[in-house]
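Q: Convert this sequence to structure tokens.
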Amino acid sequence: MYNSVLPHIIQNDISVFIKYICLLISNTNKSIVKIKEQNRITILDLDNKIARLAGILYLSLIPLGIFGIIYVPSILVVPENIETTIVNIIENETLFRWSIISALVVQLVNIILVLLLFKVFKPINKAMAFLMVILSLLAVPIAFFNEINNLAVLQLLDSPNESQHLISFFLNLHKQGIIIAQVFWGLWLFPLGYLVYKSNYMPKLIGILLMIGCVGYVVDSFTLILLPEFKITFSEFTFLGEVIFPLWLLIKGIKKSQV
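A:
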């Protein structure tokens, strides 16, 4: 009798044990899936925070760049009239100095910005993300050292009558430095636009607009070098992507779930 019952007991125990193991494995798998999902959400939240910070920094470049590179020179520097230009700079020396600070801050922000964007877009295409960083950072030393020309102008203001030609030379040299830096301000937009287009983080049109922006800057620079009298500025018509892109990052963030 015991010999006939014992196998059934052992069989039942084994069956219960197997069910227990299966249940344990199932719960473990569910836990692993849950942990992975939580990690994915955490990483997405972190990347969204990075993307929004990048959006804020990118947007800050607009007023800083307009003030330091466009507005101040436009009201102080009078083409073909160095005497009036010198008087304007002397009377507005503080404003001129702030334009130098603004131009330097733009470069510092650019460094942080491109590193943040590298973090966001590296999973899409690491090589293009590296190219984006390299092209952006190449502009930084050019723009930084270019401000030495404006500092030289300030040093020459103590004897403006004797230094008119030198002041004119350094102001023109600063303008040429902007043209050179602008090549790289344009070029980095192409890999950025490509990454945006491929990522599906946002509408592909934004990526296309960024790549068009690249063309505008580069064409402007080469045109100013080859045809200095040519007055049309193409980047005035191709900058839209640089406004929409940071606004999208700031307001909408990125949606990796769509990748």
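Residues 2-258 form one domain.
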